[in-house]
Write a structure and sequence with these properties.
With 452 residues, this protein is of the alpha+beta class. The chain has 20 helices and 12 strands. 53% of the residues lie in helices and 9% in strands. The N and C termini lie far apart (60 Å). It binds protoporphyrin IX containing FE. Protoporphyrin IX containing FE binds next to helix 15 and helix 19.
């Protein structure tokens, strides 16, 4: 494999190495159990208290922006960089015996690969890689996948239909996990038989990337899983060099042959990124979305009586409980941001989940309203890094909800959902549901039946 020096990391490291200026924690952001269950009250407090706050709870300290217009401005600002991995890795590495146990070299290797993923690149590298991937995510190409996505969804849902009414199943395990992971396999042209490995690897990477303050265990697991992903894709690339297909990996190999990728490592980094970005987020859209719908039975009924509203409904579900709650940027040079002087290397967190509930933008923002029209949500980001897979995610969510309404219209929650404890990639670990029958009309009856 060609080894090429990592892209400039000086900026991200500046934040770690520069002596910290005294800053006071705003005291409004605590990632405790209450927050992980319902982050929206603390978001409202932050939004109301001012446009920008310092929080010690995020990484090694960060500026936090919550209002709609400010989040939009941050995501579009060319004065803010997407390169932000070195600080996380270095910080987590310091907790691994100060990096003196040989982990430092491991961490550097991890960081090198990680930082090449498009989501962490700035112009001009970002534009070069995005141009390659944009071909694979072209709307015509994505639309052509519709029949195959429908078939994947139909298969996952029909197994549940075959179960007797009243039987409890976990929507996350049975539908929300397998559907996006099968679609990701299809997109990348990899064997669906390997999907359980992917889910495990990608869960480890997500737990690290999305932790406000990743610990040693999370770093170690993410490192191990990233190496497993790299080994796996190195094998896939080798085989695909001989037999190209109509998938994203083949497309990236063709781009590499034209010199559009700088190294194998750069190509592998995109494979690892797509694996993670593709299904973790979509799984959370399906889980958070169904959870919100079943918690608002009148909205579920309304949708059932007019399934043509599903595409509009998915938009408000995305706004209401976004699968990606925040993203970050680094300050390139000292500047004023929301009336605050911020310094080169500072981390800025754009709280997408808070912007999606800003009353200055949405009327009654805490109300799920599937009939909302014309108001765009922030859940796919904005600016140069706006989600490239949005069309694919929407297509999957629309297919799943439409199919559920059609064949399992009497779905209800069988108990409280279990949250995944991830502040950035907010989602559910488990969502127990069942089909209501004449016998089980409420939870008490269900509980009684279960205890027998
Ligand atoms: C509901 C599902 C999804 C949500 C909520 C979501 C959200 C996001 C957000 C907020 C960003 C911007 C991050 C930033 O600015 O730092 C992003 C970027 C990205 N997403 Fe998604 N995403 C979803 C599904 C997908 C899918 C299905 C794929 C691919 C199969 C994908 C691939 C990507 C990639 C590659 C980027 C980086 C784009 C760039 O840096 O230019 N996403 N996504």
């Amino acid at each position: 494999m060609t080894v090429v020096p990592a892209p400039a990391e000086a900026l991200a490291l500046a934040a770690v190495e520069a002596p910290a200026a005294p800053r006071r924690d705003c005291g409004l952001l605590r990632f405790n159990a209450d927050f992980l269950r319902d982050p929206y009250p603390p978001y409202a407090a932050l939004r109301e208290a001012g446009p920008i706050h310092w929080s010690d709870a995020l990484f090694q300290g960060a500026w936090v922006v919550t209002r709609h217009n400010d989040v939009e401005a941050v995501l579009r600002d060319p004065g803010l960089s997407a390169q932000r991995t070195a600080g996380w890795v270095k910080r987590a590495g310091e907790r691994t015996h100060g990096g003196t146990d040989g982990s430092a070299a491991e961490l550097r290797a991890f960081q090198r690969l990680f930082s090449r993923a498009m989501i962490f690149l700035d112009a001009p590298d970002h534009a070069r890689v995005r141009e390659v991937l944009a071909v694979g995510f072209h709307p015509t190409r994505i639309r052509a996948l519709a029949p195959r996505i429908d078939a994947i969804v139909a298969e996952a849902v029909s197994e549940r239909v075959a179960k007797p009414a009243g039987a409890i199943f976990d929507f996350m395990a049975d539908i929300a996990r397998p559907v996006p992971s099968r679609v990701t396999c299809m997109l990348l042209g990899i064997d669906p038989a390997d999907q359980n490995d992917f889910i495990a690897w990608s869960d480890d990477l997500a737990a690290f990337i999305a932790a406000p303050q990743p610990d040693t265990r999370q770093l170690r697991r993410a490192h191990r899983s990233l190496l497993a992903v790299v080994r796996y894709f190195a094998g896939v690339l080798e085989k695909r060099r001989h037999t190209r297909g109509d998938d994203l990996v083949s497309l990236m190999l063709a781009a590499e042959a034209q010199g559009l990728f700088r190294s194998d490592a750069e190509l592998l980094a995109q494979c690892a990124m797509l694996l993670l970005a593709g299904h973790e987020t979509t799984r959370n859209l399906l889980g958070n979305g169904l959870n919100a719908l079943l918690a608002h039975p009148e909205q579920w009924r309304r949708l059932r009586s007019d399934p043509s509203q599903v595409p509009a409904a998915v938009r408000d579900l995305l706004r209401y409980d976004s699968p990606v709650q925040y993203t970050g940027r680094r300050v390139i040079a000292d500047m004023d941001l929301c009336g605050q002087r911020v310094r080169r290397g500072d981390l800025v967190i754009a709280l997408i989940g808070a912007a999606n509930r800003d009353p200055a933008r949405y009327s009654e923002p805490d109300r799920l309203d599937l009939t909302r029209r014309g108001l765009t949500h922030f859940s796919f980001g904005r600016g140069a890094h706006v989600c490239i897979g949005a069309g694919l995610a929407l297509m999957q969510a629309e297919a799943v909800f439409a199919r559920l309404l059609q064949v399992l219209p009497d779905l209800v929650r069988a108990g409280p959902p279990r949250w995944n404890g991830n502040a950035a990639l907010r989602g559910l670990e488990a969502l127990p549901v069942f089909r209501r029958t004449a016998r089980f009309t409420d939870h008490n009856q269900l509980r009684l039946a279960l205890s027998r």
